[in-house]
């Protein structure tokens, strides 16, 4: 199994990758982990990897160009998955880890940072994966969990195979798509509403996108959100009638 980790902070992996069963497995070439820094693929003198989001908002987004260049520099194995570590992805669980071990020989893992990545990066991605419904400063810690969980299932990592057989968001909606410069990247264009300067329409569009994304990716969250809204409406109606 080959892992290619796209990260702005490759140094934080060194201790984890050299420790315990994971370190032994890598030393025995049961798996390989390669670290690639998108900052090495920037073209400006400041090696800039982030920019302000179109439409306004707090924080910065990772630009698409360095991420695309980093991923496209990697060798391509026949059975590969390109994963974005994202709180909007499917939660890591044992069935997912077993699926990855069974079906893939190469996992490319993109670690987001800041307020996330330009949404056009999803054109590279075949799967979004999350550590859970909470926010961290970046995708490095979740990616370490993913590497650890996958490698320990590979033959030869755990001494006794039998031991493996014995093992058993703020508003309640997912985030809306976000974009940064350039406005047109490889034919993928930023939605016109985000370039309009009409903040009311931008807010309306973003809310609609949240609903749509949550419905398609986490219908369980949408059901919970709808129930809470209905309960809140019922409480307000009762208060007005008393």
Automatic annotation (TrEMBL):
The protein's role, per its UniProt record: Specifically methylates guanosine-37 in various tRNAs.
Annotated signal sequence range: none
Gene: trmD
HAMAP family given in the database record: TrmD (MF_00605)
Catalytic function, reaction form: guanosine(37) in tRNA + S-adenosyl-L-methionine = N(1)-methylguanosine(37) in tRNA + S-adenosyl-L-homocysteine + H(+)
UniProt GO MF annotations: tRNA (guanine(37)-N1)-methyltransferase activity
InterPro entries per record: Alpha/beta_knot_MTases, tRNA_m1G_MeTrfase_C_sf, tRNA_m1G_MeTrfase_TrmD, tRNA_m1G_MTases_N, tRNA_MeTrfase_TRMD/TRM10
Family per similarity comment: Belongs to the RNA methyltransferase TrmD family.
Enzyme class name: transferase
Name of the protein in its database record: tRNA (guanine-N(1)-)-methyltransferase
Region span, Disordered: 218-242
Complex formation: Homodimer.
Example GO biological process: methylation
